[in-house]
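This section describes the prediction task in plain terms. A model, or a person checking by hand, is given the sequence of a single protein chain and must write out its three-dimensional structure as a string of tokens. No templates, partner chains or ligands are provided. The sample shown here is typical of the held-out split.
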Amino acid sequence: MKLIKAILLTTILIVPSLAFSSPVRFVKIILKRSGGGFGGPTYQVEILYTGWVHYQGYLDVKELGKRKTVIKKKQLLELQEMFTKSDYFNLHNQYINKKDGCDDYISDMDSATITIVMARRKKTIRHYLGCGAVSNKLYKLEEKIDSLVNAIQWVGRPEEWKISPAFIKTLQKANANITRSRSQ
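The expected answer:
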């Protein structure tokens, strides 16, 4: 029993410090995508510094629910380099309307949110995809994350998309409430 406790304590204390001394400097990166007025995939991908990838599919995706995979250190470093090149920490916190730097605006588009967590820093950027003329930096990051984790395997193509049963129940309940209120 003492040996098991010693191993656990060593693992808790030493392994994270080894991971953070590696060239991978982020703790995790999260990409959340939400469909717009015309639908579209709604899912989240979380990439951990260890290479583990956690996917959660919510709506208009091929695979609903949770999935996991692992990516290689080379891919983690490639992603980290993209964040550095994009000057991510100096970008606005959101790109949603003209005051955020959108020259053009198209309604009913999807949105994406990227969060990067490092040892001493964290930054989240909300990106409405109908916000035109924003630097391609965010689009490239979003696409790079999807590409590196092979998100297409879970998101699929539009003809493969499914709607969560919980979401269907919510819609049915809302429709029943609307029908009841109209009949009163």
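For orientation: The longest strand covers residues 52-61.
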